[in-house]
Amino acid sequence: MAITQIDPDCRAGKHTICYGKAWDDALDELGACLCDCHQDPTEASQATEQVRVTVYTPDISCTACTNTFRKLDKEGITYQIIVVPEAHETLRDELKDRAELLGVAGGFPCVDIYDPTTEDGDVWFGFRPDKIEALKAKVQP
Question: Three-class SS of residue 115?
Fold first, then answer.
């Protein structure tokens, strides 16, 4: 079954954090979100100034992923989930390459942070409550 190219947050009704991107199953790459729920330009510009937290997770049960989601929720940190099915070898290979560059074992979850105001980013793999605590201080004044 093909997944419609719509951002997971749009599917979940979290329209305030839709970044206009979604996984394109046909091309096996990131593409434009095809939803019709994007914000007006004023709201969108405010949303793009926020730190973006994207969590890549497999399409099977993942204890480290569940713990990461629970900790992010507990800390009140907004995040986007991208489910990476086993068949998406391109994205899985890209995540493995990122882990190798960091000198860590790959795996899930992969948490990708981007701050558009400073253009800084961070990536980590696995359940990292210490990183989530540091992130909380950054995203919540």
Answer: strand
Give residue-wise pLDDT tens across range 83-100. Answer: 888 888 888 888 888 888
CB 123 within 8 A of CB 110: yes
The token pair at 5 is: 């190219």
pLDDT at 36: 53
Burial class from Cβ neighbours inside 10 Å (0-12, 13-18, 19+) for residue 107 reads middle
Q: What is the maximum span of the chain, computed from C-alpha positions, in angstroms?
A: 42
Looking at the chain, list the stretches that DSSP marks H as alpha helix, in order from N- to C-terminal side.
8-11, 41-48, 63-74, 89-102, 129-139
Omega within 30 of 0 (cis) for the link into 8: no
| Predicted model pTM | 0.65
In CATH, which of 3.30.70.20, 3.40.30.10, 3.20.20.70, 3.10.180.10 is domain 49-141?
Answer: 3.40.30.10
Taking alpha carbons only, the member of 105, 107, 63 closest to residue 84 is 107
CB atoms near residue 13 (< 10 Å): 8
